[in-house]
Write a structure and sequence with these properties.
This protein is α+β, with helices and mostly antiparallel strands. It has two domains: 264 residues, 3-Layer(aba) Sandwich (Aminopeptidase), CATH 3.40.630; 209 residues, Alpha-Beta Plaits, CATH 3.30.70.360. Helices cover 29% and strands 28% of the residues. The protein has eleven helices and 25 strands. A hairpin with a 4-residue loop joins strand 19 and strand 20. 49% of the residues are buried.
């Protein structure tokens, strides 16, 4: 059995085709070409704007030309994360999907159901001859995951409808009506490289097995951040006189770091002391995160001497800065119960060209001023540590509209289909909806989607029954809107 055998067949068949096309963020050329060919093959009018977004248009059925237009929106790129032992090349290789009970996952990589499933639902609607509706549009954006670039640069004539259904939410039975805004703060640190002393012995200290996850939806789950833990490890190991050669943790700005490592050199006489201190640190972290990170592992391995080490003063300065850099929830909303209002993610630390280390962080908030306040605090810490700091432009949030007509329709349709009212919520993750209001201030929008778990990590999976429910829900909304007075 493959995913093409699942129901609704039209959706899963399109999703299967999407998994065969490489689509990393900022490398959407292949999936854009596939979308254009899909439009041509299905005789859909299409348009590509300057930034690379693709819109497809299906005209209204006879008699429904004056019905409200519906935009089905999703992003075409995916987060590309894989396990260390995976040989997968996201630039060339298809995603290998696996059916695991009621879930679909990938083999050691992200699945790309975020937001490939949204794209699949939209395309299935546009090509289903059984659907009789008013004007329909599919709108597929580029580079949502690493900066909302497509949504920030929508071309003229790309959003023609009255209602927009954003298909990028991840919980069955939940309709999203607002989201946080965000921005990134990046710091570059210079260090003096020195020849690695030959009289030292060197060890790689690796922290792995952590869950990682989405830096918006999972930031309040008390998952361990590998970047934070590597900094803590190096800080705690100062009881031993060591030289720092390499440090690396995390990958993506919008993912909680799952793995991290460092290479250090010590005097041979300190070998047992290092082993004891490292094991003590590992036991402490494992105990602290025994609920949220049951698969945490700390591995120490003897390695050959590297060519270079980091000057001790520079190493101490960078480790101290990384150690005090904030990570996690900064404030909880007093307006929306249970909503994380503001957070910051200590995304990654990377050694680039010799003499340069970069730390990447990501801030989110439902309140613009608190987003900036958090970013400025992070900036100040990095500058105090001697780093050169820059911020990205960021993106605006999406304020709730409790008078939304499409929201009221969606609530009624869900209750009619499933006998219970859906939960309506604001989320801490970023969505593209707020940016679409800059193009069309009159758009009435909601966001929803089938249940996904552990997005932005190789544990990402999609709940099969929830896809059927999302499909039926979408059809119900379309049917209702075409008859709207």
């Amino acid at each position: 059995m493959t995913i093409k055998d699942l129901k609704p067949a039209r959706v899963w068949n399109v999703f299967d085709q999407i998994t065969q096309v490489p689509r990393p963020s900022k490398k959407e050329g292949k999936i854009r070409e596939w979308l254009i060919n899909f439009a041509k093959e299905n005789k859909l009018e299409y348009k590509v704007d300057e930034i690379g977004n693709v819109a497809m248009f299906r005209p209204a059925a006879p008699g429904f030309e004056n019905a409200k237009g519906i935009i089905l929106q999703a992003h075409m790129d995916m987060v590309c994360e894989k396990n260390k032992d995976s040989k997968h090349n996201f630039d060339t290789d298809p995603i290998e999907t696996i059916i695991d009970g009621e879930w679909v996952r990938a083999n050691g990589t992200t699945l790309g159901a975020d937001d490939g499933m949204g794209v699949a639902i939209a395309l299935a609607v546009l090509t289903d001859p059984a659907i009789i509706a008013g004007p329909l549009e599919g709108f597929f954006t580029v580079d949502e995951e690493t900066g909302l670039t497509g949504a920030s640069n929508v071309g003229e004539g790309m959003l023609k409808g009255d209602y927009l259904l954003n298909l990028d939410s991840e919980d069955d039975g939940i309709i999203t009506m607002s989201c946080a805004g965000g921005m990134d703060t990046l710091a570059t640190f210079e260090y003096k490289p020195l020849d690695a002393p030959k009289d030292l012995i060197y060890f790689n200290l690796k922290l792995t097995g952590m869950n990682g996850g989405h830096s918006g939806t999972d930031i309040n789950t008390e998952r361990a951040c590998a970047t934070r833990q590597v900094a803590r490890m190096l800080y705690d190991l100062r009881v031993i006189d060591y030289e720092l050669a390499t440090i690396d943790a995390g990958n993506l700005r919008n993912a909680i770091a799952r793995e991290g490592e460092a290479t250090i050199g010590i005097k041979p006489c300190d070998k047992e002391n290092l082993s004891a201190a490292f094991n003590e640190f590992a036991a402490m972290v494992k105990e602290e995160y025994k609920i949220s990170e049951p698969n945490f592992k700390a591995i120490i391995t003897s390695v050959d001497a590297p060519a270079k080490i980091i000057n001790k003063a520079d190493a101490e300065r960078i480790v101290n800065t990384l150690y005090v850099a904030p990570h996690g929830v900064q404030s909880i909303s007093l307006e929306v119960e249970g909503l994380v209002e503001t957070s910051t993610n200590l995304s990654s630390i990377k050694m680039h060209e010799e003499g340069i280390i970069e730390i990447v962080t990501s801030q989110r908030s439902a309140v613009g001023s608190r987003k900036m306040d958090t970013a400025h605090r992070v900036e100040t810490i990095f500058k105090m540590g001697g780093g050169k700091v820059r911020h990205t432009d960021g993106y605006q949030g999406w304020a709730p509209n409790k008078n939304s007509k499409i929201l009221k329709t969606a609530i009624r349709i869900w209750k009619g289909l499933y006998g219970v009212e859906p939960k309506v919520e604001a989320i801490h993750a970023g969505l593209e909806c707020g940016l679409f209001l800059k193009v069309n201030p009159n758009l009435d929008m909601i966001s929803y989607g089938p249940t996904l778990r552990n997005v932005h990590s190789p544990s990402e999976c999609c709940h099969i029954p929830a896809v059927q429910k999302a499909w039926d829900f979408t059809l119900g909304i379309i049917e209702d809107v075409k008859n709207e007075k």
